[in-house]
Structures are given as C-alpha cells and as structure tokens.
Amino acid sequence: MKKIIALVAVAVLFAAFSISTVGKKLPSVGYVLVGPKTDGGWSMRHYQGFMSLEKHGYKVGGV
Questions:
Q1: CB under 8 A, 24+ apart: contacts of 33-38
Q2: How far apart are CA 4 and CA 45, in angstroms?
Q3: What range defines the domain where residue 58 resides?
Q4: What's the confidence (pLDDT) of residue 39?
C-alpha cells in the first residue's frame, strides 16, 4: 500500500511540474563565429546548430 501511495505522489508531482513548464517562453541564444559560416569546419557546424535551434522555436542572433 505504501508503494502505491508513493507512486501516486510521484505521478502527481511530475504532472504538476510539467503543467508549470507548459507555455514558458524559450530563451534567446546569441553567438559569435570566429570565421566564415561556410568554412567547412567548426564555424559552419556551429552555424548549422544555431539554425537548428531557430527551427525549433528559439530566438537566435549571431555576429
């Protein structure tokens, strides 16, 4: 019986936490590339990663 009560309590806590995080605004992300975004290396991969974040709803800005 104690296990069932503990499981129900954990489920309620998870549900309450997930409800409180719904609708929260995503953070903004900024970056500075050390080379051109088409260099075929680190800068290009970082740029692609930030574009992926933008596609998923993040506000992204770069220099």
A1: 33/62, 33/63
A2: 48
A3: 2-62
A4: 92
Please name the residue ranges forming H helices in 1-63: 2-21, 42-55
* Number of domains composing the chain: 1
**Closest to 54 in 3D by CA, of 16, 36, 15, 28:** 28
Nearest Cα to Cα of residue 29 among 1, 51, 2, 3 = 51
Say which amino acid occupies 51.
M
Q: State the burial class of residue 44 (Cβ atoms within 10 Å of its Cβ: 0-12, 13-18, 19+).
A: middle
- pLDDT of 3 > 90? The answer is no
Which segment of 10-19, 21-30, 50-59 scores lowest on mean pLDDT?
10-19
